[in-house]
């Protein structure tokens, strides 16, 4: 089976308990929950049985330990997670507004997460890696961008593949070379997984079809558009497959895109038909939103399959 690696921010998330709660005043909080987009992605891929590892850094503290233990329990390779003294593990505080949008307070760049690098353990992990997944949010500093680009070139040099989820988080993505970095990753991308308007950050075409055609022409092998509760659509040069989302009660949307992406990429690496990869990815995304906390809705393959079969009855 092909091995999948991602590199970037490892965090804990701490969540306001009430919708509309402001961080300008004291209020009840939930968490800490293990988090960080690449960590969620790798945790979900591992839970589906894909060999998967994470390159990242945590502090020598409870939050770091919480993350490493969760990833290990899910079956991920944690050998390239460096534990630093002198820096605390990264944090993300999130509160949901009444309109469904989210407000984040991140501490990433100046936390242990900012110390991500390619050390000997990461090098040895990359030597056995077939596929790199990049989260746009992981390009949060020049140093983190170098790690992502270097992982891509190591793996591409031996015939491997790349997937890319822009995962735009304006609060953290302020590195000076961010725009160039996003474009450089896209140029080397095989599987592109944008959500919402992210597609239009990479193409000047005026509509979805135009942007998809443009990107396919520029060398992306396939594009998977994530559409929240509406499901997802897959595009390659042979055509399009669209599937509706599974009906669930959403309690926390954070992490859905990462779980969806992990499932799609894991099945793509197994040469599954696009419709099957999309079906499992939709199931993982739907399950992800049924639990508070970005990694609490990660389930193993058997449970995902069972959910997709039961919840999918009556769907096209
Ligand atoms: P994230 O907040 O993790 O960055 P995203 O914006 O990248 O998310 P979404 O489109 O919100 O991605 O969600 C990814 C996938 O998860 C969707 O394509 C869908 O399959 C599933 N999903 C998300 N929300 C729901 C929902 N409310 N009901 C059912 N499925 C959902
Ligand atoms: Mg996302």
Automatic annotation (TrEMBL):
Q: Which GO terms describe its molecular function?
A: ATP binding; kinase activity
Q: Which Pfam families match?
A: PfkB (PF00294)
Coiled coil regions in record: none
Task: Quote the Gene3D superfamilies the UniProt record gives.
Answer: 3.40.1190.20
The residues forming the signal peptide are none
Q: Which UniProt keywords apply?
A: ATP-binding, Kinase, Nucleotide-binding, Transferase
Query: Which InterPro entries does the entry link to?
Result: Carboh/pur_kinase_PfkB_CS, PfkB_Carbo_kinase, PfkB_dom, Ribokinase-like
Asked whether the UniProt record includes ATP-binding among its keywords, one would answer yes
Carbohydrate kinase PfkB domain spans which residues? 43-296
Q: Which domain of life is it from?
A: Bacteria
- Indicate the family of this protein: Belongs to the carbohydrate kinase PfkB family.
The name this protein goes by in its record: Fructokinase
């Amino acid at each position: 089976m092909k091995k999948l690696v991602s590199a970037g921010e490892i965090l804990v998330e701490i969540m306001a308990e009430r919708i509309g709660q402001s961080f300008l005043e004291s209020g009840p909080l939930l968490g800490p929950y293990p988090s960080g987009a690449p960590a969620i992605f790798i945790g979900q891929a591992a839970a589906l049985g894909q060999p998967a590892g994470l390159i990242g850094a945590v502090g020598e503290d409870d939050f770091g330990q919480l993350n490493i233990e969760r990833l290990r329990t899910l079956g991920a390779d944690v050998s390239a997670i460096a534990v630093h003294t002198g820096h605390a593990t990264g944090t993300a505080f999130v509160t949901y507004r009444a309109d469904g949008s989210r407000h984040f307070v991140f501490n990433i760049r100046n936390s242990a997460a900012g110390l991500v690098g390619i050390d000997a353990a990461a090098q040895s992990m990359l030597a056995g890696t077939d596929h790199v997944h990049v989260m746009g949010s992981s390009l949060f500093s020049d140093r983190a961008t170098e790690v992502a680009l270097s992982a891509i070139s190591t793996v591409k040099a031996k015939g491997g593949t790349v997937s890319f989820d822009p995962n735009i988080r304006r609060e953290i993505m302020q590195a000076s070379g961010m725009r160039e970095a996003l474009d450089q990753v896209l140029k080397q991308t095989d599987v592109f997984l944008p959500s919402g308007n992210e597609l239009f950050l990479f193409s000047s075409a005026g509509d979805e079809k135009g942007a998809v055609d443009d990107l396919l022409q520029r060398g992306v092998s396939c594009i998977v558009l994530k559409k929240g509760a509406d499901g997802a659509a897959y595009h390659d040069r042979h055509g399009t497959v669209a599937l509706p989302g599974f009906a669930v009660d959403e309690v926390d949307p954070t992490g859905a895109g990462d779980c969806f992406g992990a499932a799609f990429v894991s099945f793509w690496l197994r040469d599954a038909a696009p419709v099957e990869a999309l079906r499992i990815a939709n199931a993982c995304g739907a399950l992800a939103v049924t639990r508070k906390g970005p990694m609490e809705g990660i389930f193993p393959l058997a449970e995902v399959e069972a959910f997709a079969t039961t919840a999918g009855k009556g769907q096209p």
